[in-house]
Predict the structure.
Amino acid sequence: MLYLLDTANLDAIKRAFDLYPLGGVTTNPTIISKEKKNFLDILRDIREVIGKDSMLHVQALGTKADEIVREAEYLCEAVGGNLYIKIPVIPEGIKAVKMLKKKGIKTTATAIFTAEQALMAASAGAEFVAPYVNRIDNIGGNGVGVVSEIVHLFDTFGMDAKVLAASFKNVQQVHEVALNGGHAVTVSADIMDGLLYHPLTDWSVNQFIKDWEGAYGEGKLTF
Ligand code: E4P
């Protein structure tokens, strides 16, 4: 599974990259606005922490293809590294995906709520498609079901694009996306921790330490 962290918070990114097998970071305008700093400083700081090879997904704001392409070129120049331009799946967004493909700039189609949107974006040349699992669930849909349909369609049509499922509110949604063949997930730091947490794991670790110290006193295996 390819895990990404869905935040622009530098402390959260530093901690999670130190601990977990993370492939990169995803942001969106809402996520970046929470940091209340210059957006370029935020993106450059993230790039410095995660290194040039890790993926950084940054969303364009334009609603016309030409604007989106200009923003993408600017971000490639100003931030650089392994960058993916997130583009919402509006008609001008799809046009921008096609234009950027020709320029060799990688894209992630975002704000996806249906499998047909994902198929169109992949056909236009997006590297990733990002279905919003929890937002779909919240409007009475089936977020995992949409992911499953996208995976099926991509298999059927031999698409190169990968599913980067997004918008999670709990560990169970991530688990079901994985069971349904989602290629990648982007999650908050809390959900990343939650994917590993089990009270019995913690209990077992404490018990091992207690038993060891009962026999050998405090200390570890090294001297
Ligand atoms: C990806 O970066 C998406 O923009 C993000 O996961 C959306 O999450 P939300 O629905 O919790 O805002």
